[in-house]
Input
Amino acid sequence: MGKVLAIANQKGGVGKTTTCINLAASLAATKRKVLLVDLDPQGNATMGSGIDKSDLENSVYELLTGRCELKQALQRSENGGYDILPANGDLTAAEVELLDVKMKESRLRYALTTLRSQYDYILIDCPPSLNMLTVNGLVAADGVIIPMQCEYYALEGLSALVNTIQRISSVLNPSLQIEGLLRTMYDPRNSLTLDVSAQLTSHFGDKLYQTVIPRNVRLAEAPSFGMPALTYDKQSRGAVAYLALAGEVVRRSKQAAKASALASAND
Ligand code: ADP
Ligand code: MG
Output
């Protein structure tokens, strides 16, 4: 059964999409079967995977609103080595349309049901808000990866996100957990970075990934070529950091699987 991870933070520009694309490519490079779900109407993950968002016959929008079958929306990112459910501006309309639909928070979870067994990892790129699309992402997920920049205001938004995750796990998706916090655009020369980093360690302990993603120009350039950094420049610091993150994500999944096997053996 594949693990579904939502990449979420209601702040924009913290590295959600960059993380989604590069983690997907890194997991795929280690022979995992990966699906990326673009849940942001900006379609940045779609474009960054080398798929033209202005030329989509079917997308996540059609899927969520019941206008197409899963396989009609599914595409392959050759540059990334993973499959993708792409998105574009049409998805903005889903927000409004879903309001009148039954089980509106669970549309994505339902749509992904048959896919879960076909992938090792399904990564969901959430939009920069706590709207119905993000709620769909969180209801569909087993875990949330929270990318954040180590700056003063980063901590402010975090409690709203953590509260939302707790509310969804108590009402709609009991298996939802914070999978990990990821420090992005990390600059150890900045003393504020180190302060915020220390605060995160004391609040979140081992939920904080040991891997940090450095500020790296290759990570910013690669999407304009429709590629993950691993394809664009596999020796770049950015590409290497995301490979390390993939290793950590896989290790955590294995530990969690072991722990739950032990727990059920003791039942
Ligand atoms: P979000 O999806 O959270 O809005 P993005 O992943 O789109 O954030 O990142 C915002 C901007 O910062 C993009 O232009 C992206 O290329 C750039 N960026 C993200 N991570 C890094 C990094 N580690 N180093 C340099 N630039 C980065
Ligand atoms: Mg984004």
User: Anything to note?
Assistant: Residues 12-18, 44, 128, 184-185, 213, 215-216, 219-220, 223, 238 surround adenosine-5'-diphosphate (ligand 1) (CB under 6 Å).
